[in-house]
Amino acid sequence: MEQTTSGPDGPSLLRNVISASGAFEGSEDIAVARDLARGFLTDVQAVHGLPVSGRVLGTVQLVVSELVTNARKYAPGPCLLTLEVDGGAIEVSVWDGNPTPPAILGPDPTRIGQHGLELVMAVSQSFTVCREPVGKRITATIVLADDPGGDVAGRQP
Question: Which of 49, 68, 83, 130 is the most exposed place for a label (fewest CB within 10 A)?
Fold first, then answer.
């Protein structure tokens, strides 16, 4: 895990951003991406004292799994996962080399499959797709604490 402090004019004591990232190239790496998210959030709670409920831990792993799976399935080359905690929320960003935005389908209970982005949008506070000079970046934001004092295992201290 890497901890970064920065502001618009360089290093700042006013903003404390905690981040981790990893590059993934094969479908077997999807489980590794989920493990990265779990380890990162465990450290966010244990080392930095920020509350992370069991529900949030599962939600973030679901979002990571869906976004990395889509990147591996629809984009050539590697994808980059970035996890960033700032202000009580975690941003899950996945960059890939395909500039085409994903097709976001409306809810359809008769459709088999292709519900991943629908789920990600339902559990996220915000969801954005941004084209980059090369490829695109999809970012979902999830609030860390859904219960005051909750911990990674979902138990009260």
Answer: 49
The residue behind tokens 């984009």 is: 75
Q: Per the structure block, which two tokens stand in for 80?
A: 């980059």
Closest CA to 1 of 64, 59, 46, 66: 46
Q: How many CB atoms lie within 10 A of CB 139?
A: 18
Q: Are 102 and 137 in contact (CB under 8 A)?
A: no
Neighbouring-strand partners of residue 96: 136
Q: H/E element holding 54?
A: helix 54-74
Q: What is the CA radius of gyration of the chain?
A: 16
Strand partners, 60: none
Is the pTM value of this prediction over 0.85?
no
